[in-house]
Design a protein that fits this description.
The chain is mainly α. Helices cover about 65% and strands about 0% of the residues. Helix 5 (about 95-130) packs parallel to helix 9. The N and C termini lie far apart (about 55 Å).
Length: about 300
Amino acid sequence: MRRWSKPETVAETDTVKTKTPTPVRRALRSLFRAKWPLLAILILVFDVSAALFGPAIAPKDPNRQNIIKRLQPPLQEERNGEVEFLLGTDGLGRDVLSRLIYGARISLLVGFIAVLIGGTMGTSLGLLAGYLGGRTDDVIMRLADIQLAFPFILLAIMFLVVLGPGVVNLVLVLGIGQWVTYARIARGQTVSQREKEYVEAARALGKSDLAIMFGSILPNILAPLIVIASFNVASVILAEASLSFLGLGVPPTVPTWGGMLAESRDQLLAGRWWLAVYPGVAIMMTVLSFNILGDWLRDFLDPRLRGIG
């Protein structure tokens, strides 16, 4: 007698296992698809490496003066046929390449720490304003409106004139000046999140307001804040360069890109182009890289703008 077997279904024969790509894989796939952020990351890695390993990379002491060899153009050969200064020297005979490498340390240090201070302060105040509402919201937002009523660069100049130049004062002024942007974004995001189910569940479990704000709401509003932080690093680097150009940043003995631009003002008309071009290009490439990275982060972290997979 012929036995009939049970027909195999499609689900039994062709089992399709869909694997959700990890965030790292999605990020790498998005980076290779966009291409420009990869170049931006390479430039930033080079800048960070110069900042971290400046003493080991720099060919000379950035503050060592050699008046005999002042204002040498780039790639000028010595009598023995060797090139001692790849990017030339400044008005005091200091090596431009070494000062560029050491200048990356100050620019990136000021940028990252100032954004960290402003982001932490602004996000905390924005969470308080959005979650508590009422008088707390009014006071914090009115303080933000008052600060926005004044041009930031003028406020920075005023405080640095009073406090005096220096790395610590510069970081504090630039950091405190960035809190408003984070506060307004965090406040708006918190208002939209505070009535959602997971917040109600946290209240029902007896969690405190601080635990709900920083443990439940904050992880869900970090994406736009991270994007803003990437753009703000670029703006802070530009602000540091501007204040150093005006002589209100770090002391003149500390090499910075803005300070190098300030020192090149009197030499441009004499044709010493390398004194302004190299620090200007360094600032431009670093700021452009942070902006490109910020654009990519915005597309990657926003599900409405990124593609699936």
